[in-house]
Amino acid sequence: MPVIELKGIKREYVMDARKDASSKDEGAVVVRALRGVDFSAEEGEFVSVMGPSGSGKSTLMNILGCLDKPSGGTYTLDGIETSTSNSDTFAYIRNRKIGFVFQSFNLLARTTALENVELPLFYRRREKNENRQTAAARKERAMSALRDVGLGQRMDHFPSQLSGGQQQRVAIARAMVNDPAFILADEPTGNLDTGMTLEIMGLFQQLNEQGKTIIMVTHEPELAAYTRRIITLRDGELVSDKRVTKMRSAPDDLAKWKKDHALLSEGS
Predict the structure, then answer these.
(1) For the segment 143-184, what is each residue's pLDDT rounded down to a tens digit?
(2) What is the mean predicted confidence (pLDDT) over 92-107?
(3) For a Cys staple, 31 with which of 5, 13, 121, 140, CB 3.0–4.6 Å?
(4) In whole angstroms, what is the distance from residue 11 CA to residue 61 CA?
(5) How many angstroms separate the Cα of 123 from the Cα of each of 113, 180, 185?
(6) Could you give the count of Cα atoms lying within 13 Å of 190 in the half-sphere of its Cβ?
(7) Which CATH number is 140's domain given?
(8) Would you place residue 260 in the very low, low, confident or very high pLDDT band (cuts 50, 70, 90)?
(9) Residue 239 CB contacts under 8 Å (≥ 6 apart), including other chains
(10) Which of 18, 34, 37, 38 is nearest to 26 (CA)?
(11) Around Cβ 202, how many Cβ atoms within 10 Å?
(12) By residue range, what is the domain housing residue 73?
């Protein structure tokens, strides 16, 4: 069974039309952001969502992240049909089923890396007959997530004491700490330089090799080349769905970038 399954997803926004100087008519303008999108992702896939501005990428991301509901169609996430879910179910899904990674990191500035990663556990929505986690268990789980992203020596650091790449690693650890059904990454390297971008893409590839499902929204074909599959939206429709036949290796490209960068530094 797919982790994600969208069937005929539509999202329409009704906007009030202002009076035109040459007309006395007023009416409503219907903006069709998504026009019947069919899309599914199996466990362990790494998918890029691409498309020009206005294609529907952000709308699709909001629906995938259960931040918005479709106007039509069905969205099943890890066996839960979300389209008719109430706000409590939506909150449970966001907390337990989806790990969010944003371009701007969204870390709490006055909170350590460890405490940032612990937050989803503190607000963890329990399933029936599930015991509440102890403070010690939450801390150990958050520490393990930080070690998994290579920040075992930075747990007590505040975001201002970390590089952009390290902050994004904290954000990824926070996304992973509840063992979600999938990670939803929105332009995750938009604020990073080339080296840090390759580090983060290498981390995503490592997590994917471990079986994690990742959906990444991006406008950069260079980043999509590090994923296994690329879907493209245009005018609210899915116009392309292709497997990446030769996926680039971010660790290999990072090693080459470091070597070239070192040679340039020596020659300057």
Answers:
(1) 999 999 999 999 999 999 999 999 999 999 999 999 999 999
(2) 94
(3) 13
(4) 12
(5) 17, 14, 21
(6) 13
(7) 3.40.50.300
(8) confident
(9) 232, 233
(10) 18
(11) 18
(12) 4-267
Burial degree of 224 (CB within 10 A; 0-12, 13-18, 19+): buried
Phi, psi for residue 103 in degrees, rounded to 5: -60, -40
Question: Structure tokens of 142?
Answer: 């958050």
- pLDDT digit string (tens) for 116-136? 999 999 888 766 667 778 899
| Bridge partners, residue 6, by sequence | 39, 75
* Total residues found in the chain within this entry: 268
d(CA 257, CA 263): 10
On the question of pLDDT at 24 being above 60, the answer is no
Locate tokens 């994923």: which residue? 227
Tokens of 88: 């409590």
Q: Report how many domains make up the chain.
A: 1
* Predicted model pTM: 0.91
| Sheet hosting strand 237-243, strand order edge to edge | 98-102, 182-186, 214-217, 46-50, 229-234, 237-243
Tokens read off for 68 = 């918005």
In this predicted structure, the answer to whether residue 262 has a pLDDT above a threshold of 90 is no
Q: In whole angstroms, give the CA distance from residue 258 to residue 268.
A: 15
